[in-house]
Amino acid sequence: MSIEVRRPLMAANWKMHLSIAEGVSFIAKLHELVGTPRDREVLIAPPYTHLWPLREPMAAAGFSLAAQNCHWEAQGAYTGEVSLAMLAETGCRYVIVGHSERRHIFGESDAWIGRKTAAALSRGVVPIVCIGEKIEEREAGLTEQVLRRQLTAGLEGISLDTPEPLVIAYEPVWAIGTGRTATPNQAQEAHAFVREWLADRFDKAVAKGIRILYGGSVKPDNVDDLMAQPDIDGALVGGASLEAASFARIVQYQRSGKSP
Ligand code: 13P
């Protein structure tokens, strides 16, 4: 399997923003601006309440729907939680797991994230497993150690015969919502480390096919340089994904130096 099989994944994480009506017009506008690209995948992760009403416009536009979180149990007394079967029923093909805001604001542990990843895989929903170091960890030279720990726990017990069922997102915590992006070289270095780790953990050919997204202050003016890096296979975008024209430019990144 070669690098060329990694179809770039351009993902919007709306977090707790936009109304359902705003979401519907966003999708129409984005579709008008980018069409349904064949050489890259467009994904939107809206709030839970938007999933069902947005599933039809998303499907009609050829975009992929994702949830921002999930619970690992199939059902039960878990007030406020949503299961993977429920998400699949709303048309979700993907689920974001272990976002740094879940880890740091809501106290999610590495072990929980591992359970969510395994549950998503077993339900046929593709987990986008987020990892990333804090600024003090980077400054102390602990970036690789943190990524290794998060990957080990986040992917515990899972096996893969093909790369498609898994996506990793490297989101350095210090770059999220701060306007401070990792340089293309810093991001590439972390992505190459992740891919090597994946090659040790899974089959080499499988690791080569797993998409690794970069997230953290991705904007229209830095996406081209980030996407030119050999191990960056897409972007997970927060702030700049809330406005259709800005996200459209990100989706339409220029292929300087690398063909998707
Ligand atoms: P920003 O693009 O706002 O930095 O957010 C990144 C992010 O957390 C995407 O999941």
Q: Can you lay out the helices and strands and say which pair or pack?
A:
Elements lengths: L8 E5 L6 H15 L6 E5 L2 H14 L2 E4 L16 H6 L4 E4 L2 H5 L5 H14 L2 E6 L3 H5 L3 H12 L12 E4 L13 H18 L2 H6 L1 E5 L7 H5 L6 E4 L6 H8 L9
Parallel strand pairs: 1-2, 1-8, 2-3, 3-4, 4-5, 5-6, 6-7, 7-8
What does this structure look like?
With 260 residues, the chain is of the alpha/beta class. It has one domain (9-251): TIM Barrel (Alpha-Beta Barrel). The chain contains eleven helices and eight strands. Strands 1-2-3-4-5-6-7-8 form an eight-stranded parallel beta barrel, surrounded by five helices. Helix 3 (84-89) links the parallel strand 3 (64-67) and strand 4. Helix 1 (20-34) runs parallel beside helix 2 (48-61) and helix 7 (143-154) packs across helix 8. The protein starts with 8 loop residues before the first strand and ends in a 9-residue tail after the last helix. The model has no long low-confidence stretch (mean pLDDT 95).
Q: Which sequence of SSEs, written as H and E, runs from N to C? A: EHEHEHEHHEHHEHHEHEH
- Estimate the strand proportion: 5-15%
Tell me about the largest β-sheet: 8 strands, parallel, barrel
The number of E-state strands comes to 8
Mean of pLDDT: 95
Identify the CATH class: Alpha Beta
Q: How many helical stretches?
A: 11
- Predict the CATH topology: TIM Barrel
- N-C termini distance: 15 Å
Q: What would the principal axes of the Cα set say about the shape?
A: globular
